[in-house]
Specification:
By secondary structure, the protein is an alpha+beta fold. The chain contains seven helices and 25 strands. The chain has four domains: 18-40 and 142-171, Molybdopterin biosynthesis moea protein, domain 2, CATH 3.90.105; 45-133, Molybdopterin biosynthesis moea protein, domain 3 (Molybdopterin biosynthesis moeA protein, domain 3); 175-317, MoaB/Mog-like domain (Molybdenum Cofactor Biosythetic Enzyme, Chain A); 326-390, MoeA, C-terminal, domain IV (Beta-clip). It has helices at 4-11, 58-63, 154-162, 203-211, 227-237, 257-264, 299-317; strands spanning 17-21, 34-35, 45-46, 50-54, 66-72, 87-90, 103-107, 111-114, 117-120, 132-133, 144-146, 167-171, 175-181, 185-186, 199-200, 217-223, 243-247, 268-271, 283-287, 290-295, 326-332, 344-353, 356-361, 370-374, 385-390. Helix 5 packs across helix 6.
Length: 396
């Protein structure tokens, strides 16, 4: 059903790599495997607030207590090794020095303090955990912390920092040129009312909203229905961006201005159509090394293609591996439309009820949280399982 995906995957190559400081890598995509330079934790540390003791001296701590000889907080650098017959007041994250495998942290709620001595309560469980993280217990030096194509979120950045990584190679963020083709189009911020026959151009807003989570930088253009101006646009801009998208100008016969202008500019068509509605009249190709998506003009047709085509291409340019929408099987909550010769995509509302997914068509004015895929040549009814693509984004 989605054989065209493999064509796009083979055609779109990730952008060039660059080195950035770790603190600037948030939200970017790793362009090389990242390995820990240091173990984590780098040194043994306490996992709880309490008292550091030798495990074989817990009975002594219970009967006569142990003298408190030091207080170790997180960030205390001059922590001495624990001496036999003593204890240290210790806090979460503090260094543990000495014979770590013979030590344990007794939780503060299991102790009572009398003057400068601490006593272990009799209720202390004999097989309590040590509450000490030994050096390298989270990960060892040399461990792979991120594979190529990993989106570096806050948690991964924290792990890389713990592994002693100070800068990382990432793929550059894609520059996207978007052209709305149509003499009837007016920019929403033009400051004037529409004349008869004119329409506000909003597809660029749909694209900008869709690619925003992926760091794509959108540059917007408006071109009238002119073959010559479209040819000039393709020739003058294809080398200036990483992805070129057009909407409109894909009508039948003499109204197919974009396709003819694309070919006249030296473009190579890789996909002349997509086996779905919307998308049947869309086109994908290359102009030099720049991928080009030529899509229909009506906003209701553009909206699903933002998620099904544009966002995946942007994610491929970013170097991601898993780029396509998540596919689910959901139970249809009403009868579907009459069967048609083409696969049709409609916005839907996905619901989780009674441990299973249900889906209903989105109402007027709603964009929905998924796309329903009504199969070609088949009538689907209430209660049938149907394929849906969940909107939104996820990263490896």
């Amino acid at each position: 059903m989605m054989g065209w995906r493999s064509v796009i995957e083979k055609t779109v190559t990730p952008l060039h790599k660059k080195m950035v400081p770790l603190q600037d890598a948030l939200g970017q995509i790793a362009a090389a495997p990242l390995y820990a330079r240091l173990p984590s934790p780098a040194h043994a540390e306490s996992l709880r607030d309490g008292y550091l003791c030798y495990q074989d001296e817990l009975n002594q701590a219970m009967e006569v207590g142990l003298p408190i000889v030091f207080e170790a907080a997180a960030g205390t650098l001059d922590v001495p090794p624990l001496k036999r017959g003593t204890t240290q007041r210790i806090f979460t994250g503090a260094l543990v020095r000495g014979e770590v495998d013979r030590l344990c942290v007794v939780l503060q709620e299991s102790c009572r303090k009398e003057g400068d001595r601490v006593f272990l309560k009799e209720s202390y469980p004999p097989k309590a955990p040590s509450f000490i993280a030994e050096a390298g217990s989270i990960f060892a030096a040399g461990v792979e912390l991120a594979v190529v194509g990993t989106m570096l979120d806050g948690w991964k950045i924290a792990r890389l920092a713990a592994g002693g990584i100070r800068e990382v190679p990432v793929f550059s963020a894609p520059s996207v040129f978007f052209c709305s083709s149509g003499s009837e189009l007016v920019a929403p911020d033009s400051g004037r009312d529409l004349l008869p026959g004119e329409k506000y151009s909003v597809n660029d807003l749909l694209v900008k909203d869709g690619i925003a989570p992926y760091g794509g930088c959108l540059h917007r253009f408006w071109i009238p229905d002119s073959h010559e101006e479209l040819v000039d646009f393709f020739c003058n801009n294809s080398a200036c961006c990483d992805l070129l998208i057009t909407s409109g100008g894909m009508g039948p016969g003499k109204y197919d201005l974009v396709r003819s202008a694309f070919l006249a500019a030296g473009g190579k068509i890789e996909l002349d159509s997509f086996a779905m509605l919307p998308g049947k009249g869309a086109m994908f190709g290359l102009l030099g090394k720049t991928p080009v998506l030529c899509l229909p003009g009506p906003p209701h047709a553009m909206a699903p293609l933002v998620y099904e085509l544009i966002i995946p291409v942007v994610r491929l340019l970013r170097g991601e591996k898993q780029v396509w929408p998540e596919t689910l099987a959901a139970t249809l909550m009403e009868d579907g439309p009459d069967s048609a010769s083409f696969l049709r995509i409609k916005p839907g509302m996905l619901l989780w009820r009674q441990q299973q997914w249900f889906v209903t068509t989105a109402g007027d004015g709603q964009s929905g949280n998924c796309h329903i895929f009504y199969p070609a040549g088949k009538k689907v009814c209430k209660g049938d399982l149907i394929t849906v693509h969940r909107k939104g984004f996820s990263f490896i």
